[in-house]
Design goal:
186 residues, alpha/beta, 9-stranded mixed β-sheet, 9 strands, 23% strand
């Protein structure tokens, strides 16, 4: 085992009521700490947000001061019957930015799975993960909505392992490279 390098560090991440002896870390706190540590690149996939300004503030700061690159992969629900899916995606992104990204100087790169916006779609981008600097990975179920942060019981894992983080980041980059996700410019 020693010849294979350091072992991954795993931390339990939790949202909801906790037992008295819990060692779990709060999801919102962990995410914000990850953003504070970002030096180069952050990937966020699948989460829903309803008021992200406070959560994203340290990330925006690092984008402005350090040139951190942010890629977000969004779950955009299907368009109404007869609606234009591309227009629907742009509208969704504009609304998301208005509610969650109060800064105009640095914007994230925003991607979505075009299958999800088709009027008869049953697909969704449901995977929820964050990768910071291909070093830290958070995988969990908690959305950053009122319900996901104050009413639900949610679980996740924070993984400190560069090899794993690179694998996750490469998986998403592969979707971009093969044009399986599309970029939305608001």
């Amino acid at each position: 085992e020693r010849t294979h390098g350091p072992r991954a560090s795993l931390d339990l991440v939790w949202t909801g009521p906790e037992a008295a002896a819990s060692t779990a870390r709060d999801t919102w706190v962990v995410m914000r700490e990850m953003f504070e540590k970002a030096q180069q690149r952050v990937l966020i996939a699948g989460f829903a947000f309803d008021s992200g300004g406070e959560l994203f503030e340290p990330l925006h700061k690092n984008m402005a001061e350090l040139g951190v690159r942010l890629q977000m992969f969004l779950n955009i629900p299907r368009a109404d019957q007869g609606g234009d899916p591309a227009k629907h995606a742009r509208s969704f992104v504009q609304d998301l930015l208005i509610r969650n990204w109060p800064w105009q100087d640095k914007l994230p790169e925003l991607y979505y799975d075009p299958r999800t916006v088709e009027p008869n779609s049953f697909e969704s981008l449901h995977a929820k993960c964050v990768v910071v600097d291909e070093r830290l990975t958070l995988i969990g179920s908690a959305n950053f909505t009122d319900r996901g942060q104050s009413r639900n019981i949610e679980i996740g894992v924070l993984i400190e392992d560069a090899s794993f983080a690179r694998q996750v980041a490469l998986q998403w980059q592969g979707l971009i490279n093969q044009k399986l996700v599309q970029r939305v410019v608001p």
